[in-house]
Structure formats: structure tokens, C-alpha cells
Amino acid sequence: TLTIPRLPELVDIQSRNYTVWPFSMSAEDTDLLSTLEQRRALLAAPGQQELLRDIRRGIEKESLRMDAGGLLARTPHPAAFGSALCHPSITTDFSEALLEFITPVSESITDTLEELERIHRFAARSIGDELLWNASMPCHLPAADDIPVAQYGSSHSATMKTRYRLGLGHRYGRKMQTIAGIHYNFSLPPALWAVLNDGNADKDTITDGYFGLIRNFRRYSWLLIYLFGAAPAVSSCFVNGQSHALTKTGEHTLYGPYATSLRMGDLGYQSNAQKNLNICYNHLDYYIDTLRGAITTSHSDYERFPGDEQLSSGLLQIENEFYSPIRPKRVTASGEIPLGALRRGGVEYIEVRCLDVNPLLPLGIDAQQIRFLDAFLLFCLCADSPLCDDDANSSIADNLSKVVNRGREPGLMLCDTEGQARSLSDWGDALLDDIAQFAEILDAAHGESRYIESCATQRAKLRNPVLTPSAQIVDAILNRDGGYHPFALRLSQQHSKTLRDAPLLPSEIHRFADLREDSMEQQAEMEASNQGGFDDYLTRFYEQYQTL
């Protein structure tokens, strides 16, 4: 341990985070500690444990509804859930059949997962003979036109949500929109930002810190895809003639022998129109300007679609259409655009979007994965995060593509942050050395050893790819179930039974009933308060982009 004397403060300009540290060193001593080491020391200092226990998280988890035979359900959003527009815990994404379960913000991993399980149990018991498909790549699908687009009512907000989804269907195909994922929301308490920034926790400091985290997340997210990717295969009905390099097994299954997450590749949330869209994460102003430009600039390919079946002909209709593994976020006020919220208040939290639903787990995610995510995100926050240029962005995209399609390939080489060829296993081991030190800090804060145990589990996957979820899924498909669909159907049926068999307390049943009624009342109030026509509403919405 290096003891640093308390001398005059030092402004660390070189890190580009404009951070003020509560100590100073000579120029010679500065070389001894990196930005990573300085911030790690601050977090590990006595007195920070309570703040580390105040890290906040939330989960948004998607699941398709299917019939008993594994075909996409084409029934309306179940009445037992209430309003998909206003319910705080159960809504839909693209399709009426694509449920989205949302947990409230919590400082407790246990509380977060217990609430997610309660929502699952209630949903599983409320959909009659239908079941929850617990995997990222979809169940058997009907013809694209028969995939029902989500409906939210007659309010202007509801009309906007449905029209946006109709636009997505035209642009990318409805089948692509049936892919499910898990979004992990993560934030630090303001007091912890103050620790890292010599008492400064204003919105600009916090925003710059989150953007540094985002840049590092993009550099290293390939590691998460390797460790937790759980979508190496898909039913052939999803591909529907689209070109691919997958291997066929049986009549209806396509898979990548070394693939990790087809959801994150060309078959998933990708768009040829977006491939040349370079959104800048170097600063909030640049992020807003580049994303606003994509929203306000018409794209010729989209001008041919019916005007009442998309919000606009812009390259992006709204911010959410930009498919990114991570997003800076802030809760919006009523009617406010997301970029407007960021301009107003800065970044409030980040949303990790590259997580597959793991069909091997009843909820698609577990506490061990969450603990690793927390340590990984703290590492991304604290490590030096240089600004990105086109070359860096190209390298990031290339690394991600390799791991998505060939992550378990022996000897796979990536391009590290120094521009040098480096094996996935060697680079991953080095990253885990750093991540594990943040796991130790979190363990000390919580009085346990489960964070470092999670790191040990992930390191074992690096050394033995057979332990990864993607490898286990491919093995089950080839050697037990005879295909992707029977594999995922078997586990979905098993998980659904477990969820239905677990009793809900009377208080929980009453709570979901109250949420249903409250959501329906809110929807009715919104529909009654419509003012003017929808086109005027939409015009006012888009005018906000001109005043950012």
C-alpha cells in the first residue's frame, strides 16, 4: 500500500475528467499511481462503505408470450395486467406479445431480484394457458404481418408509441423486434461522486464521469458478451432467407459453433442505415448534437413508408431507435424528449443494454451476474477513459463483432486499446485482475465475499469456454434437445411451472390488483385530456429538438 501525504490539491487534467483529488504528489510520484489506482484508493478508504452500499440499480426484462406449443401469442395484452401505457411494473415493448417487467430502483440486489421474481410469478399465473418464453432469440413466429404491434390506447402518447413501433416494423422487420433482452440500470449516489471529485458533485462533473464510464464500457463490453452471452442459436423461421454464416442442425435450428450472442450481431439489433451513424460519447454536447442530427435529418429509404405508420422519415424516429449497448439516461418529465432531459439535468444513470436473457436461469439473470456487473461498471468508471476517435470506434466495433460470432474460438485475437493484437483470454485475464480489486472493495462494503467469488467464476469461463452459457446452450441443443426451439421450450415450460407453483402472498395479489386499477384510471385520464389533433401534438414534440 502506498501512503500519499496530504499536500496541496492536484487537478488531474490529463485524464480529461477534470477531477480534483484530495491529495497531491510530485510529478515523479504521479507516475506511480494511475487514474485507476487513485480512484480505487478513494473508494477503498475508510468511511466509504455506506456510500458503496447505496449504489442503485434496476432491471427491465423482456419475455415473449407464447402458446403451449411454443408459437408466438397473438392475443391482446392480458387484461389482468392493466394498462401497458401506465403500469409501473408490466408493460410491452414492440409487440403485444413482448412483455417487459420493470423493477423499481433499489440499493439491494436481493430486493431487486425478489421483486423481479414476484412480477414473473404474477405474470405466469395471469396468462391462462400461455407461457413466458425465457430466451432472447424468439420462439416460433408467424408471418411477419401477423406479429401484433403493441397497442396503448387512444391518447396522443399512446398513438405515438404505437406509430413508432409501426415505423420500426417497416424499417427493420417485425421479426427482429421480437428479440428479448435485459436492461440493467446503474447509478452512483451523489455523495460517492463527491468522494471521487474532491467534494464536487454538480451535474457537469457527474455527466462527464458517466460519459467516461460509457466510453470504457464500449471498449470492454466484449468481455460481458463472452462471459454472459446466451444466444448462440436461433430457429430458422427467424432468419427467413436472410444471409448468414450459421451452421444448420436438424430441420429448424441455426447456430454459431463459437457464437456467444447472435442478438448483438447482424441478425439482432442492427441496421444497415445505422452502420455509418457515429454517435459521439466524448461529451454530452457532442452526444446530443450527433443524435439530434440523426433524428432531424430525413433518410431517403424511409421516405417511402406511410406517414401514419412512422413518426418521421428521419434516420432515427426518436432516441430509442439508436441501438446501442449502453445509454446515458435521465428520467424525463411529462412530454419531454430524452435529449431534453439530459440537456436540462445531465446524466442521472446509465442503461446497460447488451445482456441476453439466459434461458438456463428462471429469471434470465441472477445475483452473481449482477455483482460482476457492478464491479465491472465501477472499473469502467474509475479507469482512465481517453476520448474516442474513428479508429477507436472501428476497433471497438470489430472486437464486438468477433466476440459475438466467434467468442469461444480457440486463440481468438482482438485489438487492444493500444492498437496491438491480443488474445481474448490474455486480455480478459488482465481486465479481471483490475475488476477483481473493485469486487474486493464491494465485498468489504457489504461484509461478504460474493463479489470476488463472482469474479472467480468468470475467470474460470475465460480459461474454460465450456463453462460459458453459450457453450452450455450449444451442447444442450446438439446433444440433448435436438434443436434450439425444443431446448428453449423445455426450459421455458420448466421455469413457468416453477413460477406458477410458487404462491403469492395475499398482500402481493392485492398490490398487483391495485396497480392494475390505478394504471387503467391513469390511461383513462390521459385519453380524456387529449388536446388538439395528434399531428399538432407530434409537431410540438419534434419542436423540442430545434431548441436543444
The level of helicity is: 40-55%
Strands, total number: 14
Percent strand: 5-15%
Ranges with pLDDT <50 over ≥5 residues?
A: 1-31
Largest sheet: 7 strands, antiparallel
**First CA to last CA: what distance?**
47 Å
How many whole angstroms does the radius of gyration measure?
Answer: 23 Å
Mean pLDDT: 92
Figure out the total of helices: 18
Tell me the structural class. alpha+beta
- Overall geometry: globular
Folded structure, characterized:
The structure is a single chain. The chain is α+β, with helices and mostly antiparallel strands. Helices cover 45% and strands 11% of the residues. It contains 18 helices and 14 strands. The strands form 4 sheets. Strands 3, 4, 5, 6, 7, 11 and 12 form a 7-stranded antiparallel sheet that branches. The protein has a 3-stranded antiparallel sheet with strand order 8-10-9. Strands 1-2 form a two-stranded antiparallel ribbon. A hairpin with a 3-residue loop joins strand 9 (247-249) and strand 10 (253-255). Helix 13 (424-446) packs antiparallel against helix 14 (450-463) and helix 15 (469-481) packs across helix 16 (484-501). The model is unreliable at 1-31 (pLDDT under 50).
Index terms:
globular; single chain; seven-stranded antiparallel sheet; about 550 residues
